[in-house]
Amino acid sequence: MDAPAEVTFLPLLLGGIGLLLLLAGGFVWFVVTYQRRLFQQQLQQRGTEAAHQNALLAAIITAQEAERERIGRDLHDDVASSIAMAKMLVDRLAADPPDADMPALLGLAREVLGSAVQEVRTVSHSLYPAMLARVGLVHALQHLADLSRRAETLRVEFEAHYPHPLPLVQELALYRICQELIYNSLKHAQGATLLAIRLWQHEAHLALTVDDNGCGFEAPGPPAETAGVGLRSIAVRVEMLNARLVQHSAPGHGTQTRIELDHPAA
């Protein structure tokens, strides 16, 4: 006698339900595992970003402290010594009986005080270039080029096409980068006869280049951990600008450093 159709269908139904439950359980396990891995990746990424931000902050603080140390040294060695010398000369002028060579002492005191005034201006300019806020980045960089031209024997050229200015904070970062690159070229580019500074905007891209035809160097540059304070401060500012730093150099072929950033016209 044949079994009823309901009895034959029941095992199939139960098997199908079991298979569906198994598939559903497998899907839930996959989703939970995937979400767990995604969460772990997000935590790892946040940890990496936090570590990077801490390293960036530490580099900024190190650069600031080095700058404060340099300014303090300049104030102590140059400004303070000039003022102390001027005070000694004034004391001699006020002596009783007065010094016989008063005109010469007065002229020397004026010269020393004039030197102190110039030193204070130099220090204050290094703290914040007032010219940048007053007349903009192009004129501030032109002033840097003029100062370098007067201080050194090499030819200094400056070229700019900058129709759409950046915000002042970003301009200050570019100015400091250029200032440090010029200093590096003047200090390390032995045998250089030309220093070329160029600020150029083309469509949505802005580039600052500082080139010299000095001795150059073999390696592309020291690692961030062993780089000097100046190079670390450049790297920090490049990162703050979300820019790119490209440097080319070879022995006897000078050094070209280029800072590139996206700057869509307003």
From TrEMBL:
The keyword Transferase applies. SUPFAM superfamilies: ATPase domain of HSP90 chaperone/DNA topoisomerase II/histidine kinase. Residues 169-265 form the Histidine kinase/HSP90-like ATPase domain. The chain crosses the membrane at residues 12-32. Keywords: Kinase, Membrane, Transferase, Transmembrane, Transmembrane helix, Two-component regulatory system. GO terms for molecular function: kinase activity. PANTHER family: NITRATE/NITRITE SENSOR PROTEIN NARX-RELATED. This is Histidine kinase. It comes from Hymenobacter monticola.
